DNA sequence: CGGAATCCTTGGAGATACTG
DNA sequence: CAGTATCTCCAAGGATTCCG
Protein backbone atom coordinates (compact mmCIF):
# COMPACT_ATOMS: atom_id res chain seq x y z
CA UNK A 1 0.00 0.00 0.00
CA UNK A 2 2.98 2.30 0.05
CA UNK A 3 4.55 2.96 -3.31
CA UNK A 4 2.66 0.30 -5.22
CA UNK A 5 0.36 1.76 -7.81
CA UNK A 6 -3.13 0.69 -6.97
CA UNK A 7 -5.15 -0.61 -9.89
CA UNK A 8 -8.29 -0.62 -7.82
CA UNK A 9 -7.93 3.06 -7.19
CA UNK A 10 -7.43 3.77 -10.88
CA UNK A 11 -10.53 2.03 -12.06
CA UNK A 12 -12.45 3.19 -9.04
CA UNK A 13 -11.62 6.75 -9.90
CA UNK A 14 -12.93 6.33 -13.41
CA UNK A 15 -16.10 4.62 -12.33
CA UNK A 16 -16.50 7.23 -9.64
CA UNK A 17 -16.73 10.02 -12.16
CA UNK A 18 -20.08 11.49 -12.82
CA UNK A 19 -22.34 9.52 -15.21
CA UNK A 20 -20.08 6.45 -15.46
CA UNK A 21 -22.43 4.26 -13.52
CA UNK A 22 -25.48 5.60 -15.28
CA UNK A 23 -23.95 4.66 -18.57
CA UNK A 24 -23.14 1.13 -17.47
CA UNK A 25 -26.61 0.70 -16.00
CA UNK A 26 -28.27 1.71 -19.21
CA UNK A 27 -26.02 -0.48 -21.26
CA UNK A 28 -26.86 -3.41 -19.04
CA UNK A 29 -30.61 -3.08 -19.45
CA UNK A 30 -30.53 -2.35 -23.18
CA UNK A 31 -27.87 -4.23 -24.97
CA UNK A 32 -26.39 -2.58 -28.01
CA UNK A 33 -27.52 0.97 -27.88
CA UNK A 34 -26.73 3.99 -29.97
CA UNK A 35 -25.11 7.20 -28.90
CA UNK A 36 -28.15 9.44 -29.05
CA UNK A 37 -30.40 6.80 -27.56
CA UNK A 38 -28.07 6.61 -24.62
CA UNK A 39 -28.03 10.36 -24.40
CA UNK A 40 -31.81 10.45 -24.33
CA UNK A 41 -31.91 7.82 -21.61
CA UNK A 42 -29.58 9.81 -19.42
CA UNK A 43 -31.21 13.17 -18.86
CA UNK A 44 -28.92 16.14 -18.40
CA UNK A 45 -25.80 14.54 -19.73
CA UNK A 46 -24.09 16.52 -22.45
CA UNK A 47 -22.78 14.87 -25.56
CA UNK A 48 -19.35 16.14 -24.68
CA UNK A 49 -19.24 14.31 -21.42
CA UNK A 50 -21.03 11.24 -22.71
CA UNK A 51 -18.46 10.93 -25.44
CA UNK A 52 -15.67 11.32 -22.93
CA UNK A 53 -17.04 8.74 -20.50
CA UNK A 54 -17.62 6.26 -23.30
CA UNK A 55 -14.04 6.64 -24.41
CA UNK A 56 -12.69 6.13 -20.92
CA UNK A 57 -14.85 3.09 -20.36
CA UNK A 58 -13.86 1.65 -23.70
CA UNK A 59 -10.20 2.13 -22.87
CA UNK A 60 -10.76 0.18 -19.66
CA UNK A 61 -12.29 -2.61 -21.66
CA UNK A 62 -15.67 -2.10 -20.10
CA UNK A 63 -17.69 -1.35 -23.21
CA UNK A 64 -17.70 -2.33 -26.83
CA UNK A 65 -18.10 0.04 -29.73
CA UNK A 66 -19.35 -1.03 -33.12
CA UNK A 67 -19.35 1.38 -36.01
CA UNK A 68 -21.67 0.78 -38.93
CA UNK A 69 -20.62 2.82 -41.94
CA UNK A 70 -24.10 3.62 -43.04
CA UNK A 71 -25.56 6.95 -43.92
CA UNK A 72 -26.31 8.36 -41.55
CA UNK A 73 -23.62 6.68 -39.54
CA UNK A 74 -24.62 4.30 -36.78
CA UNK A 75 -22.58 3.51 -33.68
CA UNK A 76 -23.60 1.01 -31.05
CA UNK A 77 -22.28 0.49 -27.57
CA UNK A 78 -22.57 -2.53 -25.36
CA UNK A 79 -21.09 -4.27 -22.37
CA UNK A 80 -18.08 -6.54 -22.47
CA UNK A 81 -17.57 -9.80 -20.66
CA UNK A 82 -15.45 -7.90 -18.22
CA UNK A 83 -18.10 -5.35 -17.37
CA UNK A 84 -20.76 -8.01 -17.08
CA UNK A 85 -18.70 -9.49 -14.29
CA UNK A 86 -18.44 -6.06 -12.77
CA UNK A 87 -22.20 -5.88 -12.73
CA UNK A 88 -22.44 -8.68 -10.23
CA UNK A 89 -20.07 -6.86 -7.94
CA UNK A 90 -22.11 -3.71 -8.29
CA UNK A 91 -25.16 -5.73 -7.46
CA UNK A 92 -23.55 -6.77 -4.20
CA UNK A 93 -22.73 -3.20 -3.50
CA UNK A 94 -26.34 -2.37 -4.07
CA UNK A 95 -27.44 -5.10 -1.70
CA UNK A 96 -25.00 -3.91 0.89
CA UNK A 97 -26.43 -0.41 0.68
CA UNK A 98 -29.98 -1.65 0.87
CA UNK A 99 -29.19 -3.74 3.91
CA UNK A 100 -27.71 -0.84 5.82
CA UNK A 101 -30.38 1.56 4.76
CA UNK A 102 -32.86 -0.76 6.34
CA UNK A 103 -30.84 -0.66 9.54
CA UNK A 104 -30.83 3.10 9.50
CA UNK A 105 -34.56 3.28 9.07
CA UNK A 106 -35.08 0.97 11.97
CA UNK A 107 -32.90 3.11 14.17
CA UNK A 108 -34.70 6.26 13.10
CA UNK A 109 -38.04 4.67 13.75
CA UNK A 110 -36.96 3.86 17.28
CA UNK A 111 -35.59 7.31 17.88
CA UNK A 112 -38.56 9.12 16.41
CA UNK A 113 -41.52 6.77 16.51
CA UNK A 114 -43.92 9.52 15.51
CA UNK A 115 -42.21 10.06 12.18
CA UNK A 116 -43.58 6.89 10.74
CA UNK A 117 -47.06 8.39 10.81
CA UNK A 118 -46.38 11.60 8.96
CA UNK B 1 -33.50 3.97 -13.40
CA UNK B 2 -35.38 7.05 -14.51
CA UNK B 3 -36.42 9.31 -11.69
CA UNK B 4 -35.50 7.01 -8.86
CA UNK B 5 -32.65 8.38 -6.82
CA UNK B 6 -29.87 5.89 -6.91
CA UNK B 7 -28.22 5.17 -3.58
CA UNK B 8 -25.42 3.29 -5.24
CA UNK B 9 -24.50 6.34 -7.22
CA UNK B 10 -24.50 8.46 -4.10
CA UNK B 11 -22.12 6.32 -2.15
CA UNK B 12 -20.11 5.54 -5.24
CA UNK B 13 -19.59 9.23 -5.75
CA UNK B 14 -18.22 9.59 -2.26
CA UNK B 15 -16.01 6.56 -2.40
CA UNK B 16 -14.87 7.56 -5.84
CA UNK B 17 -13.43 10.80 -4.58
CA UNK B 18 -9.72 11.07 -4.33
CA UNK B 19 -8.14 9.44 -1.25
CA UNK B 20 -11.31 7.79 0.04
CA UNK B 21 -10.13 4.34 -0.81
CA UNK B 22 -6.65 4.98 0.53
CA UNK B 23 -8.12 5.99 3.83
CA UNK B 24 -10.26 2.88 4.10
CA UNK B 25 -7.33 0.67 3.13
CA UNK B 26 -5.14 2.14 5.80
CA UNK B 27 -7.83 1.88 8.40
CA UNK B 28 -8.31 -1.75 7.53
CA UNK B 29 -4.69 -2.69 8.00
CA UNK B 30 -4.15 -0.65 11.14
CA UNK B 31 -7.14 -0.57 13.35
CA UNK B 32 -7.62 2.54 15.42
CA UNK B 33 -5.30 5.06 14.00
CA UNK B 34 -4.72 8.70 14.71
CA UNK B 35 -5.16 11.63 12.40
CA UNK B 36 -1.51 12.44 11.88
CA UNK B 37 -0.53 8.80 11.63
CA UNK B 38 -3.03 8.41 8.86
CA UNK B 39 -1.72 11.51 7.22
CA UNK B 40 1.79 10.14 7.34
CA UNK B 41 0.67 6.85 5.85
CA UNK B 42 -0.93 8.60 2.92
CA UNK B 43 1.76 10.62 1.23
CA UNK B 44 0.69 13.82 -0.48
CA UNK B 45 -2.68 14.13 1.18
CA UNK B 46 -3.27 17.47 2.82
CA UNK B 47 -4.79 17.73 6.26
CA UNK B 48 -7.59 19.77 4.80
CA UNK B 49 -8.69 17.03 2.46
CA UNK B 50 -8.02 14.24 4.93
CA UNK B 51 -10.27 15.95 7.39
CA UNK B 52 -12.94 16.37 4.77
CA UNK B 53 -12.84 12.76 3.60
CA UNK B 54 -12.96 11.51 7.17
CA UNK B 55 -16.02 13.59 7.83
CA UNK B 56 -17.78 12.33 4.73
CA UNK B 57 -16.95 8.74 5.52
CA UNK B 58 -18.09 9.15 9.07
CA UNK B 59 -21.39 10.60 7.90
CA UNK B 60 -21.86 7.54 5.72
CA UNK B 61 -21.31 5.35 8.73
CA UNK B 62 -18.11 3.94 7.32
CA UNK B 63 -15.70 5.00 10.01
CA UNK B 64 -15.71 5.54 13.73
CA UNK B 65 -14.20 8.50 15.49
CA UNK B 66 -13.12 8.41 19.08
CA UNK B 67 -11.96 11.54 20.85
CA UNK B 68 -9.73 11.30 23.89
CA UNK B 69 -9.68 14.55 25.81
CA UNK B 70 -6.05 14.37 26.73
CA UNK B 71 -3.39 16.98 26.32
CA UNK B 72 -2.41 16.99 23.61
CA UNK B 73 -5.71 15.80 22.28
CA UNK B 74 -5.92 12.34 20.72
CA UNK B 75 -8.39 11.27 18.07
CA UNK B 76 -8.62 7.77 16.68
CA UNK B 77 -10.36 6.50 13.59
CA UNK B 78 -11.41 3.00 12.74
CA UNK B 79 -13.68 0.93 10.57
CA UNK B 80 -17.30 0.17 11.34
CA UNK B 81 -19.13 -3.08 10.89
CA UNK B 82 -20.61 -1.61 7.78
CA UNK B 83 -17.29 -0.76 6.18
CA UNK B 84 -15.83 -4.10 7.11
CA UNK B 85 -18.50 -5.66 4.97
CA UNK B 86 -17.62 -3.25 2.25
CA UNK B 87 -14.06 -4.50 2.40
CA UNK B 88 -15.05 -7.91 1.14
CA UNK B 89 -16.73 -6.33 -1.84
CA UNK B 90 -13.66 -4.26 -2.53
CA UNK B 91 -11.62 -7.41 -2.33
CA UNK B 92 -13.74 -8.91 -5.06
CA UNK B 93 -13.24 -5.81 -7.11
CA UNK B 94 -9.56 -6.20 -6.62
CA UNK B 95 -9.68 -9.83 -7.71
CA UNK B 96 -11.72 -8.90 -10.73
CA UNK B 97 -9.12 -6.35 -11.76
CA UNK B 98 -6.26 -8.76 -11.20
CA UNK B 99 -7.99 -11.39 -13.24
CA UNK B 100 -8.46 -9.12 -16.22
CA UNK B 101 -5.03 -7.65 -15.98
CA UNK B 102 -3.68 -11.15 -16.36
CA UNK B 103 -5.79 -11.56 -19.49
CA UNK B 104 -4.44 -8.34 -20.92
CA UNK B 105 -0.88 -9.39 -20.36
CA UNK B 106 -1.48 -12.66 -22.11
CA UNK B 107 -2.95 -10.88 -25.09
CA UNK B 108 -0.05 -8.46 -25.23
CA UNK B 109 2.45 -11.29 -25.05
CA UNK B 110 0.79 -12.94 -28.02
CA UNK B 111 0.65 -9.77 -30.01
CA UNK B 112 4.22 -8.76 -29.30
CA UNK B 113 6.16 -11.88 -28.36
CA UNK B 114 9.44 -10.04 -28.49
CA UNK B 115 8.44 -7.68 -25.72
CA UNK B 116 8.77 -10.35 -23.09
CA UNK B 117 12.50 -10.36 -23.62
CA UNK B 118 13.20 -6.67 -23.23
C1' DC C 1 -2.38 17.25 18.20
C1' DG C 2 -6.23 17.68 15.30
C1' DG C 3 -8.20 20.15 12.84
C1' DA C 4 -10.84 24.89 10.79
C1' DA C 5 -10.36 29.15 7.98
C1' DT C 6 -8.58 31.26 4.21
C1' DC C 7 -6.94 31.77 -0.28
C1' DC C 8 -5.30 29.99 -4.61
C1' DT C 9 -5.24 26.89 -8.50
C1' DT C 10 -6.83 23.53 -11.58
C1' DG C 11 -9.53 20.04 -13.74
C1' DG C 12 -13.72 18.64 -15.16
C1' DA C 13 -18.55 19.58 -16.25
C1' DG C 14 -21.65 21.97 -19.20
C1' DA C 15 -23.24 25.05 -23.12
C1' DT C 16 -22.73 26.13 -27.71
C1' DA C 17 -21.40 25.71 -32.26
C1' DC C 18 -19.53 23.17 -35.88
C1' DT C 19 -18.23 18.89 -38.96
C1' DG C 20 -17.36 14.19 -41.55
C1' DC D 1 -25.95 10.77 -36.59
C1' DA D 2 -22.10 10.87 -33.75
C1' DG D 3 -19.26 13.11 -32.25
C1' DT D 4 -15.15 17.19 -31.78
C1' DA D 5 -13.59 21.99 -30.69
C1' DT D 6 -13.84 25.79 -27.93
C1' DC D 7 -15.11 28.44 -24.16
C1' DT D 8 -16.80 29.43 -19.59
C1' DC D 9 -17.52 28.38 -14.90
C1' DC D 10 -17.48 26.26 -10.54
C1' DA D 11 -16.32 22.89 -7.19
C1' DA D 12 -12.81 20.20 -5.35
C1' DG D 13 -8.05 19.83 -4.21
C1' DG D 14 -3.98 21.79 -2.19
C1' DA D 15 -0.88 25.15 0.44
C1' DT D 16 -0.59 27.90 4.19
C1' DT D 17 -1.78 29.83 8.46
C1' DC D 18 -3.85 29.88 12.78
C1' DC D 19 -6.28 28.04 16.97
C1' DG D 20 -8.41 25.31 21.16
Describe this structure in words.
The structure is a homodimer of 118-residue chains. With 118 residues, chain A is mainly α. The first copy, chain A, contains five helices and three strands. In chain A, strands 1-3-2 form a three-stranded antiparallel β-sheet. In chain A, a hairpin with a 5-residue loop joins strand 2 and strand 3. The longest helix of chain A is centred in the last third of the chain and has 31 residues, at 81-111. The radius of gyration of chain A is 19 Å and the shape is elongated. Chain A starts with 6 loop residues before the first helix and ends in a 7-residue tail after the last helix. The relative contact order of chain A is 0.11. The model of chain A has no long low-confidence stretch (mean pLDDT 87). The interface between A and B is medium-sized, with 32 and 33 residues. Chain A binds a DNA duplex (20 and 20 nucleotides) through residues 17-19, 34-36, 39, 44-52, 67, 70-75.
Amino acid sequence: MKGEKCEVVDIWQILGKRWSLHILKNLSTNENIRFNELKRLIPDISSTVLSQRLLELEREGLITKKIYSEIPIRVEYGLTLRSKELETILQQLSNWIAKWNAHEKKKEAKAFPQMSKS
